[in-house]
Write a structure and sequence with these properties.
By secondary structure, the chain is of the alpha/beta class. The chain has 11 helices and 12 strands. Strands 3-4-2-1-5-12-11-6-7-10-8-9 form a 12-stranded mixed beta sheet, with helices on both faces.
Length: 358
């Protein structure tokens, strides 16, 4: 592409972000276009299909130039006020012609390829962080992608390092022990090592939000945290012992607490300072429902334990409104701001650890 000189970021200036396109049939491209048009990204490039991004700009009714980069590094000298796209090799053809709001294998394949390409940029240090637009898990499966979501794909790209999902907003932070598996399977996967590893990762990552010793509450699995074994013994068998082991390592972990009240205790709201800085929850919906109830527009998904920063918005592909130009970029912008805050602060994981829990 033809470029004009622009200052390369200094040590004090924001570094380059990689923004993945997400599913081209969903709202991800539209939210990216709106974020760039609102000057909310700072130095950034979209890893995706240039025709899809031009279609998104048109769908949103924006007057925003879209430039195709020859290499990711060209973003540092590209014209300002422009949506910059780096198109990784191997993208399926005709993505901009796919119908909006439908599960398509080509879309899933393209989304996965963009994630892998962006992760490679981050691992090589060519970008400061990744912000990923939403993907559709059915489209991934239709494409034969052997991972159910972003977290597992990025974990594999990073060599299998133990990772955990954290969903956060200004009022609540929740770290999950298990994520994208059936509930029955998630319960089978829970054990002492899985809970202790989650506490270690949450504690180690606390430097990312400025707390050397965060107060971590652990939510039980069963109603009333098992009520002394009346409603299940997982709390007695391994959750409480994992909390005790974490405390012996200097981690300020407490619980297990009843899962129907611990999130209210941890919520940090005006007039209600939270008792805890984060909550560890055993399963996906146990932990994410409270955060999402507070408002998906400000929720941010952060992958803890990766050797680079990765955030994403707290919503999906919204196939019901995709292509209408009505997509709200608030959660994506919150994810970009979180990535900027964490850049250079999130600690790298240790080289050794317990086995990851998917």
């Amino acid at each position: 592409m033809t470029t004009q000189n622009r200052a390369t970021p200094t040590d004090s200036a924001p570094r380059l972000l990689a923004l993945t396109m997400g599913d081209p049939c969903g709202i991800g491209p539209e939210t990216l276009a709106r974020a760039v048009a609102a000057s909310a990204t700072g130095p950034a490039l979209v890893v995706g299909d240039v025709a899809v991004m031009r279609r998104a700009v048109a769908q949103c009714g924006l007057l925003l130039p879209v430039a195709l980069l020859d290499t990711p590094g060209d973003a540092l000298t590209a014209p300002p006020d422009c949506l910059l796209v780096w198109q990784p090799p191997g993208l399926p053809p005709g993505l901009a012609g796919l119908p909006m709001g439908q599960v398509r294998a080509e879309a899933g394949r393209a989304a996965a390829l963009c994630i892998a390409a962006a992760a490679a940029l981050a691992l090589r240090g060519e970008v400061a962080a990744l912000v990923t637009a939403p993907i559709h898990k059915e489209a991934l499966a239709a494409a034969g992608v052997p991972f159910p979501g972003h977290t597992e794909m990025l974990q594999a790209a990073a060599g299998g390092a133990p990772v955990r999902m954290m969903l956060a907003n200004d009022e609540l932070r929740v770290v999950l022990v298990t994520i994208h598996v059936a509930l029955r399977r998630a319960i089978e996967m829970l054990d002492f090592d899985a809970v202790l590893q989650t506490l270690r990762i949450a504690h180690r990552s606390a430097a990312a939000w400025g707390q050397s010793v965060p107060r971590i509450a652990v939510a039980g699995l069963n109603p009333h945290a098992g009520e002394g074994g009346l409603f299940g013994d997982e709390e007695i068998a391994f959750i409480a012992p994992a909390v005790a082991a974490a405390r012996a390592e200097g981690i300020d972990a407490r619980g297990p607490f009843a899962p129907d009240t611990v999130f209210m205790r941890a919520r940090n709201a005006p007039g209600h300072p939270g008792e805890f800085d984060a909550v560890v929850a055993m399963t996906h919906d146990h932990g994410l429902i409270p955060v999402k109830y507070l408002g998906v527009e400000q929720g941010v998904n952060v992958t803890l334990g990766l050797p680079f920063v990765r955030t994403s918005p707290d919503h999906g592909t919204a196939f019901d409104i995709a292509g209408s130009g009505r997509a709200d970029a608030s959660s994506l912008i919150a994810a970009i701001r979180m990535a900027r805050r964490l850049d250079g602060v999130m600690p790298a994981p240790p080289s050794a650890g317990l086995s990851p829990v998917a």
